[in-house]
Amino acid sequence: MMGGNMNKMMKQVQKMQQDMMKLQEELKSRTVESTAGGGMVKVIASGNNEIVSIEINPQVVDPEDVEMLQDLVLAAVNEALKKAQEMVSQEMSKLTGGLNIPGMF
Questions:
Q1: pLDDT tens for residues 1-21?
Q2: What is the total count of domains within the chain?
Q3: How far apart are CA 20 and CA 92, in angstroms?
Q4: How far apart are CA 27 and CA 42, in angstroms?
Q5: Does residue 50 lie in a domain region?
Q6: Any idea what DSSP says for residue 63?
Q7: Which letter, b or e, does each residue of 42-72 get, where b requires 16 or more Cβ atoms within 10 Å of its Cβ?
Q8: Is residue 105 situated within a structural domain?
Q9: Rounded mean pLDDT of the chain?
Q10: Is position 48 within any domain?
Q11: Cα–Cα distance between 43 and 51 in angstroms, integer?
Q12: Considering just the CA atoms, what is the radius of gyration of the chain in Å?
């Protein structure tokens, strides 16, 4: 009797692993956007935590205040990566039914 339940559980785990691999591939093409400085700096990140693009409005480029531009870029990048991680977590929790399995993603 235990063997049948174990086989069924193993098949469910294998299906979940396949679904997760498919989702991870899908998330690579999904993106999130973040801005800083009222939209003066825009960063787009992918679902695999890579920065896809950074746009800087020329009006924010001030040679006398490079630190401000650096801070805006840093803030936008960090927020974009945070949003990407949240997107991945939400999609994975849909797949796993809310199971929190350490090291899974």
A1: 456 788 888 888 888 888 888
A2: 1
A3: 7
A4: 20
A5: yes
A6: T
A7: bbbbbbeeeeeeeebeeebeeeeeeeebeeb
A8: no
A9: 87
A10: yes
A11: 7
A12: 20
